[in-house]
Every structure is written in structure tokens, then in C-alpha cells.
Design brief:
Low-confidence stretches: none
Order of helices and strands: EHEEEEHEEH
CATH superfamily: Response regulator
Distance between the termini: 23 Å
Helix content: 25-40%
Oligomer: single chain
Shape: globular
Mean pLDDT: 87
Largest sheet: 5 strands, parallel
């Protein structure tokens, strides 16, 4: 893995726990992300499905303030935007059956685990584009 595997990418972080969100933002920036946008509530997302088009990568917590983010994850998948789930609900496998191949990282997680999962997501989405 290169020193800056997220070089130049705009990353969306859906995370309602403030300190975790700041930590994830720093992890992404430390690995080359050009821009990191943190959203802590679903109502911060536009209803427009094109709202996801400004990002090249996303880190999605399954629940924001008690609301599920699974529909938004479906929009990411439909728009071919690589993403991973980073959540405290990692042990609930049936939540993720609709997202085969998408990494589910259980909290707490290290920078190495997160960045490796993001790199794998980018590779998976790009390799399926050329298939």
C-alpha cells in the first residue's frame, strides 16, 4: 500500500460520534485525501440521489442518531461509489446481505484496518468497472 493511497480523493464520512468522525477525518487526510466531509445526521443529506456524486469514497456508519443509513448505502452502490461500513453493528450480518463484498469494519478500528478496507473497496469497484 502506498503512503498516500487516498491521494486527491474527496471522502464522505457518515458518523454521528464526533470524536470518531474527527479521528476518521485525520486518518483519511494522513493518507492523502484531498477533502473529507463529515455528516452526522441523515437530514444533512440532500434528497437528490446525485448528492453522492461529488465523492469518490465513503465511510458509512449504519446508524446516525437512530436512523439507518442503508438506503443511502444503496445509493452509493447504485452510483458506483466505493464505500465501507464502519459501525458498532458489525456483528449483525443480515444488515449487510444486500451489500456483498462491501467491508464491514467493527468499532473500534485502527487506521491500518480502515485504510486497507478503503483501498480494497476502491480496487473492487474499479476492477468491476472494467469487467
Amino acid at each position: 500500500m502506498s503512503a498516500n493511497p487516498l491521494q486527491g480523493l474527496r471522502v464522505l464520512v457518515l458518523e454521528d460520534e464526533y470524536l470518531i468522525a474527527l479521528d476518521v477525518e485525520q486518518m483519511c487526510r494522513d493518507h492523502g485525501a484531498e477533502d473529507v466531509v463529515i455528516l452526522r445526521r441523515l437530514d444533512e443529506l440532500a434528497d437528490d440521489p446525485l448528492a453522492v456524486s461529488g465523492f469518490q469514497l465513503a465511510i458509512v456508519d449504519v446508524r446516525l442518531g437512530g436512523d439507518t443509513t442503508l438506503e443511502f448505502a444503496r445509493q452509493l452502490a447504485a452510483n458506483r461509489i466505493p464505500f465501507v461500513f464502519a459501525t458498532g453493528y458489525a456483528e449483525t450480518e443480515q444488515l449487510f446481505e444486500a451489500f456483498p463484498g462491501v467491508a464491514v469494519i467493527g468499532k473500534p478500528y485502527s487506521s491500518d484496518v480502515l485504510i486497507a478496507a478503503l483501498c480494497a473497496a476502491i480496487k473492487r469497484f474499479h476492477s468491476s468497472d472494467s469487467a
